[in-house]
Structure formats: structure tokens, C-alpha cells
Amino acid sequence: MSIALDENMLTDGSVLLARQPVFNKSQDVQAYSLLYRSDSGMLPAEFSDEQATASVILNNYAVASSDGKTKHLPLFVKLTQSMLLSDMLPDLPREGVIFELLREDGISKELLSVLRERKSQGYRFALTHYTGDKGQTPLLDLMYVVKIDIQRHDDAELKQLVNFCKPYRVHLLADKVESQDDFRRALDFGFNLFQGYFLCRPVSIKGKSFGSAKALILELLAELNNPAATAESVEQIVINDPAMTYKILRLVNSAAFSTPKQIESISHAISLIGMDQVKKWATLFLLSGQSGKPVELTRVMLIRGRMCELLAEMLSYPQPINFFMVGLLSQLDAMMDTEMQVLLDQIPLDDSIKNAILTRVNQMGEILTEVQHYERGEWADMRNLLERPYYEVAYRHSLNWADQVLASLQE
User: Fold this and answer.
1) Cross-strand partners of 69
2) Rounded CA gap, 283 and 286, in Å?
3) Fewest CB within 10 A of the end CB: N or C in the chain?
4) pLDDT score at 85
5) Helix (H) and strand (E) counts for the chain?
6) 290-330 pLDDT, tens digit each
7) Nearest-CA neighbor of 127 among 178, 78, 70, 194?
8) Contact 124, 95 (CB under 8 A)
């Protein structure tokens, strides 16, 4: 499960890249916002004049899977006025990018002229942090999306901003949606796009327990944590669930393993995959198929788990599989809509894993915290346990891996 560092992906060690989903009213992902850090404050090095290097970004950060199918989504890319006026727009497919114009003081005639020209050429623009400032009004006719930080405005202000924007027929994006209450509030005011961490905030329901199908998976996890477990003993549990049996058989031939084999039995499949990997997939089965939960939450959990595992491997920490479990399960409360302590009491995991999730202690908790900062673009809070390029490669690999896994789970 190790990953080789691809030098072609590390053209500039000063840049870190991550992405944040943009949702619609149904909580389906409509686009991704590209987060980046660059020492120069300029666009990432990958956004050069060469279409090949620019496509690397689109192929890693604008791709998602749903219902077993891969699709390309628009990518929000931040752009300063100075970049726009100096003709620094990257050579990217116009249908695949929405340039996010950062709010700056002063709207010049030159800026408006350039925006009109670019819009006529098929480019799309988003205005970030719109506040209703009269100086920003001339921009509204030229915008595709208007982004409003809902944490900065009370209800009366939000209503006024939304009503003012309606005649311009722009998409209204609610930013900083931190909870389900925030989501419902923005929805009521007429926003149709949403960005924030609201999918990762659980509704607290004490005492919630797993159903019978989940109980079987818990039995499987308990057996996998038994030092005396064998492929045959695991098989005796798996065969009680036809759906689980089918999924494990498919795993051996999936893109996530890339080891096409003729399978003789369930125990043979388990032996090929390996006990650690079966443990990982059993946990995925536990989390998949939760009614009403957006696919994106599962994707985020997979990305986090895989990136924790990869960083542990790069740092030569023991038992990287446990780091995967910590990262994956760190959002179990959001998936199951109940308190983390209640959920972990029902899962037969080592105490060190549970403590890392609950209190961020030990090496596993430290890596989890590091990955959380990375995925949110909180670059200044990172401890930088590795050089920057390693984070970039691990994150990019985790995006691709998560989509492969989702495709396997949804087939």
C-alpha cells in the first residue's frame, strides 16, 4: 500500500493544494473550490501556459464519482484583479472552471471592460464575500456566482442581499455553512449553492444503535481484531450476508486492488486481499449505504483515512492501517448522526485508535489533526511533519483512491 513520490507532480514545493465541495439544495456536489497556498501569492505552478500541466489539476481536483460513474465538475479557482488585468488567466477548458474574483477595493473601468470581454468569450466568474457594497454593484451583471458569508450577516441583512441580487440572475452561494441549521437558514433565504462543513456536524441522538446488518459487520470486525482469526473463520461470518459476500468477491478484481484473480472461495478471496485490508473494507461496509447521507461525506471520510495512512507510511510509523481507521472513523458521528463516544463504544477497536479519534492524542491523533488542517486549507496551523510536496502527493493520491473505492462500493 506504499506510494512512490512522483517527481512530475512536485514541480513547485512551495505550493499546497486541496479542495472543498460546493453543494446544491439536494446536498449533491456541484463543483469544487480549489484551496491553495503559495509563497508568492500567485496561482499554483501547475497553472502554466501548458495545457498538459493545467489538466493535471482538473484530472485530480475536479473529478468525482457517483453511482459508480466518474464525472468532471467545475472548479472554482481564486483570481485577483491584478492577475486578471495582467492577462494571467490559465489556459483551462472554460466549461470546467469558474474564476473566483477576490474582493478588492476599487472597481476600475479597465476591470469591468476586461470582465465583459472575458465573459463574451465564455469565461465564468464568481464574486467572493459580497457584502452589498454599492461599489460592487457594477460587477453583478458580469458574475455567474455571487458568494455571501452567511456568518457575517443577520437575517435581515441576508434577506436584503438576496433580494438585491435576484434581478441579476446569478447563482447565490452561501459560504461558511457550518451546521444543518445554517444550511436550512440559507435554503430558506433562497440560496441555491452551499459551502462549508455542515455535512460533518452530527445531530446528537443519544442511544442510537446499529441495525441487524450493521451488527453482522460489527461481528466481523470483532473477529478481524482477534489475533487467532483466520481466513476461514472470517469466511464463516461473511457468508451470512450475500451482499457482503458479493462485495468482497468484487474487491479482488476492483481498481482499488488491481489484482485480477480466479476466486475459488470466500476464504481464498480474503487471503488474496489480506486480513488488514478486509478489516479496512469491513469498516467501509459499515459506513456505506447510510440512508439520506450524501456521497460526498463518504468521499471525504475515505480521503481523510487514506491520507492519514499514507503520511504514516511516509513517516515509517508502525501499523499504518490503524492510521487509516482513525482518519476514516473520525467522521463516524456525522455519518451516523449520534455522539462519537456512543458509537465507539459499539465498535471493537483498540483503545489507542478510539483515544486518537476522541482526544487527538498519540501519533495517530497528531496525523489526524494534520490532515484535517490540510483538507481545510488551514496551512498556518500545520506542523509540517514532512516536506510540503509529500502532503500534496498524498492528498492527490487519496482523491483518486477514494473515487476508485466509491465506484467499487456503488456498483
Assistant:
1) 66
2) 5
3) C
4) 83
5) 18, 10
6) 555 678 888 898 899 999 999 999 999 998 988 988 998 89
7) 78
8) no
> Kind and range of the H or E element at 389?
helix 388-410
The string of DSSP letters for 71-122 reads: EE--EEEEE-HHHHHTT------GGGEEEEE---S---HHHHHHHHHHHHTT
68: left (phi over 0), alpha (psi -120 to 50) or beta: left
Which triple of cell numbers denotes residue 286?
Answer: 459499515
Task: Report the C-alpha gap between 383 and 322 in whole angstroms.
Answer: 21
- In 190-258, which ranges are continuous DSSP H helix? 212-224, 231-238, 242-252
Question: At residue 209, what is the residue type?
Answer: S
400 three-state secondary structure = helix
What are the tens digits of pLDDT across the range 215-229? 677 778 778 878 888
Phi, psi of 75 (to 5 degrees): -120, 120
Mean pLDDT (whole number) for 351-363? 93
Written as one string, the DSSP assignment of 258-316 is --------HHHHHHHH-HHHHHHHHHHHHHTT-TT--HHHHHHHHHHHHHHHHHHHHTT
H or E stretch including 233? helix 231-238
Q: How many CB atoms lie within 10 A of CB 410?
A: 15
**In this structure, which amino acid lies at residue 249?**
L
Q: What is the DSSP letter of 55?
A: H
What is the pLDDT at residue 271? 83
Q: How far apart are CA 183 and CA 20, in angstroms?
A: 16
Calpha distance 298→316 (Å, rounded): 27
Question: Taking 70 as the threshold, does the pLDDT of residue 6 lie above it?
Answer: no
Model pLDDT for residues 26-46, shown as the tens digit of each residue? 988 999 998 887 666 566 655
Amino acid at 170: V
- Categorize the per-residue pLDDT at 118 as very low, low, confident or very high, splitting at 50, 70 and 90: very high
CA distance 15 to 389: 8
